[in-house]
Amino acid sequence: MAYPSETFGENVFSLSRLAETLPKPVFARFIQQVQGRTTLDKDTADAVAHAVKVWAMNHGATHFTHWFQPQTGTTAEKHDSFLTLRNVTTNGVEEVRPLDIFSGSQLLQSEPDASSFPNGGMRSTFEARGYTIWDTTSPMFLRNAAHGTQVLYIPSVFISYNGEALDEKTTLLRSSEAISNATVRLLHLLGETHVKRAYTTLGTEQEFFLVDRQLYNLRPDLRMCGRAIFGAPPPKHQQLEDHYFGQMPSRVLAAISEAELELAKLGVPIKTRHNEVAPNQFEVAPIFEEASVAVDHNLLVMETLHQVAHRHKLKVLFHEKPFNGVNGSGKHCNWSISTADGENLLEPTAHPEENMRFVLVLVATLDAVHRHGGLLRAAIASAGNEHRLGANEAPPSIVSAFLGDQLTEVLNSIEEGRSIRVEPPKRKGIKVGGTVLDLQVRTLPTIARDLTDRNRTSAFAFTGNKFEFRAVGSKQSPSFPMVLLNAAVAQSLNELTDDLTKQMGSRTVPSKDDIRAVLKIWIKRSKPIRFEGNGYSQDWIAEAEARGLPHIRTCPEAFAQLLDPSHSKALVTQGVLTQEELHSRYHILMEKYCKDMLIEANTMHAIATQGILPAVFAYRKELAESLVAQKAIGVDAAAAPEKSVLDKSSELTVAFQKEVGVLAKTIEEITSAEPLEGAKIAAAKLFTLLRSLGDKANDIENLVGDKYWPYPKFPELLF
Hints:
By secondary structure, the protein is of the alpha+beta class. The protein is built from 23 helices and 21 strands. Strands 10, 11, 12, 13, 14, 15, 16, 20 and 21 form a nine-stranded mixed beta sheet that branches. Helix 9 crosses helix 10, helix 12 packs antiparallel against helix 15 and helix 20 (579-632) packs antiparallel against helix 21. The longest helix is centred in the C-terminal third of the chain and has 54 residues, at 579-632.
């Protein structure tokens, strides 16, 4: 046993470890490079490579790998051995000797095949060269390999031969730089010239399901698609609301605890774990970190949970909606902006109406979400997330922002040029005094109250001192949503700074009147994005459209937002993505959506023809034989109970078989089309067809006897 603080980061090659092994001048040059003040020279790279090799091999490492994030939603790695053979001459005799070598050039870059990863047409088969380049802002670490050995992981970016970003991380680092520059520019205008750098913080709440691996192996849809494309809901699931925050099953707790220990050694700060709302659904959440490192750590969380669950004979499901009828899984991305000194710029303080810096950053963020709601909708679009959005505590596809009563009043007072109103208590028995709740029980202390309530139907909700982007899907890498959000906010911060500069005229620092004058315009302009009510209501759909907010229903519509000039300009002018990279990502997303839908369609067709229909035919045969036997002994077959079941099965089977035929034709239509057109056909026809087939399969499942049904049912999978 050890204290968590003693275990934390023991497999990470941290800056403190590097400082212990490098001469002070070399370490100082390296820090300058990390801070972007100089480029990394060969001597420094060689020194770092030697230091990390010694540390890694002393801990059992035999290989190293550049660990990167291609546009697949997961990570990639190629292991290279430290072992090298060199010709050595001894006493005039030449021989081959084995040596353990790791040079600075090997640390700095590697060369994977760029045409084999999603590239959106940037790389052809005959243009295969690509590069992975060490990301010095994210620490190297060790992970277990076979037989007690370790592999040294080097976080990296992935670019093409011509320098285009082929990964998720390059653009994230660009967006982080853009928002840092924009934030520092605003703060300098406000007189805070000591601030040299700002960064976005991110905390990712990771939801997932855990199911028995043997049962998982018996469900082709779970194995192929990550979700149950058919399955009748059990009589009891989440309706008693007894699973959320309940006691974890011992098998699950053992698996998650083991995963947490491995993650702690990797420097991933998991803070909470708990049961989620649906049966067999769980969540882990980390402490906030700088966004680029937080993304690395979230991907490590997913990979580690997958590996540890396997050892416990469990299977982790990250799909956004693995089981219809119960809650889906999200990845709530808690986002804020901080200075290099660790000061949260979205901390409202006790009197937010007097904290003009906070209000400026808040309003710039709201403006970005208002202007680029379509872009954020593209960030969360996927074949899996389309099943989740709009129900069971998941936000709808209409992007809106929630602030809560108090911050709404702060903005309204500035817009209307008046003082803050003190609202009376809304609920009897609870006295609200500032941010304190008096529970009227002498044995209970008064408690601090956040400035805002929480709204689970809001896609982008302010929760105390950060925004929670709730609409991100559980299987997604958080990188792309953060890239688009960062770029949008950076644009608004820059334009807000421009307006303040014009307003203040010859003054060196804007006055409160200058700030309020500009804020009044910006608050009014972004007001349509603010919504405090029920995002699930039909009234909200009509109201949102009346406000001019985009209601984007399908993935192809969402992906098209990337190419809309009103959005693409923000990305290009901030230096986050080039036009070519944007077009590349549009093609990749459309093609992936089309492939995901085709995989589901072909899986459903195979299950229908090879499993469901044979099962119902066998059941019908037994019913028919029973009727024949009864008729032979003089029983009125028309009055036999088997007759009504047989008639019902005929009705259901004919309807199901007919739609299976339609499915086969739709698959052929999509397969013969170009990927972009195929994606549009899939959205228009396949999505609803698969849902209809799933419902019909569920009706058959509820009719056919258990002994005939070839697949584990939801009661077994969820309990």
